Every structure is written in C-alpha cells, then in structure tokens.
Amino acid sequence: MTLKDKFCLDLNLNDLTEWCAKRDVPKYRASQIYGWLSSGCVSTDDMTNVPKNVRAMLEEDFIFGGFEMMEHLVSKLDGTEKFVYKLYDGNIIETVAMRYKTGISVCISSQAGCRMGCAFCASAKIDFGRNLSAGELLAQVSVTQKELGERVHSVVIMGIGEPFDNYENVMRFIKLANDPDGLNLGARHITLSTCGLVPKIEEFTKEGLQVNLAVSLHAPNDELRKKLMPVAKAYSIEQLMMACKEYTKATNRRITFEYSLLAGVNDTPQCASELVKLLKGGLYHVNLIAMNKVPGTIFQSASPAKVKQFRDILESGGINATIRREMGSDIMAACGQLRRGTIEGTR
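^ that's the sequence the OP posted. Answer follows.
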C-alpha cells in the first residue's frame, strides 16, 4: 500500500508523527491533524489551525474527501437514522444510528457487500465490492457522530459484510477506536458479529480483547442451518460450538447468539427445544429477532405470538433470552435489511 492508497482516517498518531518528520513539518502538527481526523473531519478545508501548505501536502499523500454522505434517512417510527456513504472509489455503504436509554448506538458496515450469502439477508443480494479499511470503519462512527452532533455511546459491527472476512482491518479499527487520543471508545462498548467463521473465532479468542462477541446462529441443527447459511456447509454446529466454548473459557465473556425467527422455518417449539439442548450450561445469551421484511426473499417474519412462545421455551429451559426491538424498518435500516439501496433505486 502506497501512502496515496491510505484513507486519511487510517492514520494513527504515530503514523502522522512519522509523516511530519518525513515532510519536515513541526512534530506538534501531528496532534493537531489527528484531533481533526478523530472528530470526523475528512476534508482538509476544515483544519483551520493547520497551514495551507501542510494541508496541501496531506492531500498529496493521503485520500481526503473520500467519504461523501449521499443520503440521510430518518425513521418516522422510532427516530432511527440511516446514513448512506459513498467511498472514494464509488462503493457505497450504509450506517445506522439508533437511540437507546443508554445513548446512541451506531451499526457500521465492515465490507461493501458480503460474500456469505445468507438466504434471508438483503446484503446477500448485492455484488461484493471490497473490504473496508480500518479508517473507513472508523469514519462511520466519527463522521456519523459529527452529523448527529452527539457522542456515540456504543458501536456494533453488524452492518453490511462479515467482519471476520475482513479480520485485519477490523482489528485495526478496534485499536483506532480505543485510542484515548482519538475516538476513545471503550472495547466493552464495541460488539462484533460473525456468521460463524470458526478459524477466525479461534484467532479472535487469542486477541484477549474485551470486545463483545455475537454469533449469528439462526438454526439449532446443521440440516436447517445449511439451508439458511452457506457458512454452515464449511463449519458444522459442533465445530462452531467448540470454538464458542473455548472463547468463553479463555475470556470469561458471554457470547450472544443471534437468532432470526422465520415463519414456519425455524420458529417451531421443536427448534426452541433443540436450541435449549445445544446451549445448556454455556455462558451464552440468545437475542431473538423477528425477521424483518426483505424484498426478494421467500421468508416471512414469525408472528409475535410465535416469538414469545420461542422465548418462553428457552427461558423455561434455563437459557437467557431477549427479544430484539425492531428499529428503522420503514427506512430499510433494521437487522438484515441493509443493501446499498441507493444503487438499486430502492430502500
């Protein structure tokens, strides 16, 4: 990667300090520039206390202006906000800001598109663009925070893409987000969601991070899971659960299993009972999601009664379970709905 291939928010304070030395720029300018970048600045025009000649050199060496907000949608149902961003090479991603009692949570994308092909997810219906850089993940937080005018409380890497399919950049993003001189977002305020790439779960376990881990399960057995998630053909539920068990053992941190309930597919009492047996005795939590409407799929959302029945069976079996509150469905911002709708002329 040459310097000019680096998006400005990929830079940390050490990178900028080294750049200043190479460019014969006073060292203190690195902190000034880093302060602007951490506040969501992606244009040198905003760096009012940085000389024009230094800004010109920055533009020569790094990518600036490569994060354009194309669309900003606000849900009439719950105030959820979706931001559609265009990257420097024309790829488009979506970021969602949700308001909770604890503060604002931002759901960010890790890739422009997704290669996992889950049958019920809108992101599977679009072409894969590329992995996002660490700075492009960070920009979704800092630029969105700047647009909102409010501090972001937490981040979930649950948007378009599979985070563990972009492992190195996601790990670097976490370090950039944690930086006390930068965004200063605590690791426990970050949740990473994976569809179940077992080798990467094993690698992540060794990182020793305090980041929250969520695993998309969506079925209690291999036969059903293979119909919904192609990743299940590569890694069995037994392999997945072994990796999850090792994670909880090594970190003493709870895993959240995400389970989207599809009417007549995986919402039956039998599935719930199987799930109880699968998770019994583990340091686990189940987040039940009534599948959100996705154009072009054959699946329908489970009824509220079925969702409640499923939860009750889990809880009676000793499994901690909650029902996720649906947010932003009217602007295609809910779980499973993100898909670069601007390109397709539909949201």
